[in-house]
Amino acid sequence: MKILDRYLYTKITLYFLIILPSFTLVSGLIELIELLRKVKDVDLKLITLYILLKMPENSYYIVPISLLVATFILILDLKRSKEIYPILTNGIPINYLNSKFLLLSIAITFLQLVNLELVMPKTVPIYENIYLKLKNIPEENQKAIAYNLWLRLKENSFLYFDIYDFSSKTGKGLLLIEFDDELKPIKRAEAENFSLEGKTLTLENSRLIEINSMSEININQFKETRKMDIPISAKDIYRLAKSKKPISLTDIYKVATLAKKYGYESSYLWSKLFQKLATLISPLVLTLFSISFFWERDYYKVSIGFLSIIVYWYGTALITTISEGGKIPYISIFSIDFVFLLVGYIRLKKTGYTFE
């Protein structure tokens, strides 16, 4: 069995490593053509860097299809070379091979998660910034929301806020802390709501805590608005917060939760979260659905398997678009996955697969 496993994984890995770069190259060429049509200044160095940095995001969507094509080619190769017959005559059922394909799809899903959580949050903000430079678009106000951000105002004073909306210039959950030279807190200001115009901070429903000593602490509650000048503007916050654009699942969940908590529009963020989750598990979903079709001798049925994959991607995109407006529950994005998993499960069960 170990020899067979090694043989299967070696061949499918080889096919995968040929198909993935090929699809990525085609995607990069399409990206290059679109970029050359849109950019104002043709800077070959920046364009090359843009395409390279966009590869992790492109591969996130290309990997599931590459895995399916590699699996199909391996199954086709086993049938055409008649290598499948020695396997079957030695008492090894087709469902044993299917289990290896499913295990590989789980491993690929894990790699997709690593890419989404660790790689893309670093590359996406950089390539987006390069794109703005190529199109001569100013960076200001491109980011809608900053969240969970600490800023240093002076040597011993710091500002924190839960969420800040660049378009409305308002935010929620503000905290200002000032320390003495020995780093002991001497002043703390809190505000449920705030706005920032230029470098003028306006606090609403705020509280000021002044600590003169451990025995002398003054607490003042202010219902009226209070204004104060700070050495930082919204433009400065934008520059500091560039890397905070929610890209990973954890970051999207954080900002979606904050937006919902404070009444900001969050439908887009929740839809994006569920869409990324659906894309994340797509290697497993599509492999489970497709392998029973790939073993078919009737190429018409094989074609149905491939055409269904197109339905999967466009169906998920359509439901995601509808859910962005809050017209249907976000969880409905998984309805396509559920249908494909169910069909794949039923078809494999008919071939005797036990899922054990």
How would you describe this structure in keywords?
356 residues, alpha+beta, seven-stranded antiparallel beta sheet
Could you characterize what this model shows?
The protein has 356 residues and is of the alpha+beta class. Helix content is 59%, strand content 19%. It has nine helices and seven strands; from the N terminus they run H-H-H-H-E-E-E-E-E-E-E-H-H-H-H-H. Strands 1, 2, 3, 4, 5, 6 and 7 form a seven-stranded antiparallel beta sheet that branches. A hairpin with a 4-residue loop joins strand 2 (157-165) and strand 3. The longest helix has 41 residues, at 94-134. It is elongated. The two termini are 17 Å apart.
The description of the largest β-sheet is: 7 strands, antiparallel
Unreliable residue stretches: none
Number of strand segments: 7
Shape: elongated
Q: Give the SSE string.
A: HHHHEEEEEEEHHHHH
Count, helices: 9
Mean pLDDT: 83
What Rg is obtained from the alpha carbons, in whole angstroms? 27 Å
**Oligomer state of the chains in this structure:** single chain
Distance between the termini: 17 Å
The assigned structural class equals: alpha+beta
Strand content: 15-25%
Percent of residues in helices comes to 55-70%
